[in-house]
Amino acid sequence: MTDNPLLTPDLVVFARWVVPVVPTQTVLENYALFVTDGRITHLLPANDAKTMLSEAALAGATQLNNHALLPGLVNAHGHAAMTLLRGVGDDMPLQAWLEERIWPLEGELADASFVNAGVRLAAAEMILSGTTCFADNYFFPEETAKVTLETKLRVQLACPVLDFPTRWASHADEYINKTTALHDQYRQDDRVHVAFGPHSPYSVSDAPLRKIATLAAELDLPVHMHVHETQTEVDDAEVKDGVRPLARLHALGLLTPRLFCTHMTALTQEEIELVASSGSHIAHCPESNLKLASGFCEVQKLARHGINVALGTDGCASNNDLDMFSEMRTAAQLGKAVAQDATAVPANAALAMATINGAKAMGLDADIGSLEVGKFADLCAVDLGSINSIPLYDVISQLVYSTQASQVSHVWSGGEALLCDRKLQTIDEQQLKRTTQEWQKRVKHVAEKA
Ligand SMILES: [Zn+2]
């Protein structure tokens, strides 16, 4: 008989394996996790858990007898609304793809209703593949925030800033003002985190970048930006500005631990050392880089310099999916090929890139990115009983090298169920398919006119 009263947490999950990510390379067998008020309160051996729970809590517990429970995946870079443009312009070079295909379509279509529908489609795909938090850089971020709250995901809204007008704003100051207004609106929110999202060094001039550097420091907000995506971008900037983009950002005061650079395929040794000493983070998007032939991010070299490298899918128009399991596998394989070293980017490093590293880069690692007591219960369960997962010698290897997204069985965010036995809990799948069909017709119509 124990003196302690029996517990009735809001959620109890028993899992065959728990992969907490922190500490690294850890697999806990036959463990349980308790959640109350959205946060993890206990992570302990299943046998100990059973002695602490009330009869009702035990009866209501989720039993995952053949599954690995891991942190919800963190997609560190993307443009969720572009999911509506999946497959509309493939096998084109980056500049032609942008100028002849994507920008004309966006100019005609990318309004608030496009963003609402595209983000909802992205949310469904992300939940079905185990992602619970995503960084997003797109117009009408207020719509992205709304859909994120409705579907109970978590987002870093990297609100766009550009020199030129779009349907969302007409000049750089208006983009910046809309960003700070959104930050005011959501500053107390656990699910919506606002950041500055200046598109790239070549599309934002010095004055707005200087203003962003000042405001980001004052408000302690991240700055999320495409930087050194291709060698051509760097070469063009050297001709136009007389200086490489990273050096220009440094001179403008942007290279700080708040800066989150996406791509970074063309870096010199000095630039790697500069990024390392500044504490800035990198979002690596291997499948998008491969598809657009953008170049290669030297992940192993960056990691050896102590740079935090996170993982993202980029938008669906250049990937063409939001599957972080395949992205982990590609990151591990490409990292080895680029380093010409089969020990580069091992499975546990790829898993960290897809979880805790993304959380760190967004400044959210106190709350998400690993399964630790006190953090939000953002969880993803993977059924490892399928044919492609047996025999099973190493759970982390299996998760990175042979798991398919369709093996994700359950997802929770802040302890709330988003996916149960592959069924979406916060999105009406039939309605979503109908809405997407309607958008497909509209996009096709505009694409054929172009
Ligand atoms: Zn991007």
TrEMBL record:
<dbReference type="Pfam" id="PF01979">
    <property type="entry name" value="Amidohydro_1"/>
</dbReference>
<protein>
    <submittedName>
        <fullName>N-ethylammeline chlorohydrolase</fullName>
    </submittedName>
</protein>
<dbReference type="GO" id="GO:0019239">
    <property type="term" value="F:deaminase activity"/>
</dbReference>
<keyword id="KW-0378">Hydrolase</keyword>
<dbReference type="InterPro" id="IPR011059">
    <property type="entry name" value="Metal-dep_hydrolase_composite"/>
</dbReference>
<comment type="similarity">
    <text>Belongs to the metallo-dependent hydrolases superfamily. ATZ/TRZ family.</text>
</comment>
<feature type="domain" description="Amidohydrolase-related">
    <location>
        <begin position="69"/>
        <end position="417"/>
    </location>
</feature>
<dbReference type="InterPro" id="IPR006680">
    <property type="entry name" value="Amidohydro-rel"/>
</dbReference>
<keyword id="KW-0479">Metal-binding</keyword>
<dbReference type="GO" id="GO:0016814">
    <property type="term" value="F:hydrolase activity, acting on carbon-nitrogen (but not peptide) bonds, in cyclic amidines"/>
</dbReference>
<keyword id="KW-0862">Zinc</keyword>
<dbReference type="InterPro" id="IPR032466">
    <property type="entry name" value="Metal_Hydrolase"/>
</dbReference>
<dbReference type="InterPro" id="IPR050287">
    <property type="entry name" value="MTA/SAH_deaminase"/>
</dbReference>
<dbReference type="GO" id="GO:0046872">
    <property type="term" value="F:metal ion binding"/>
</dbReference>
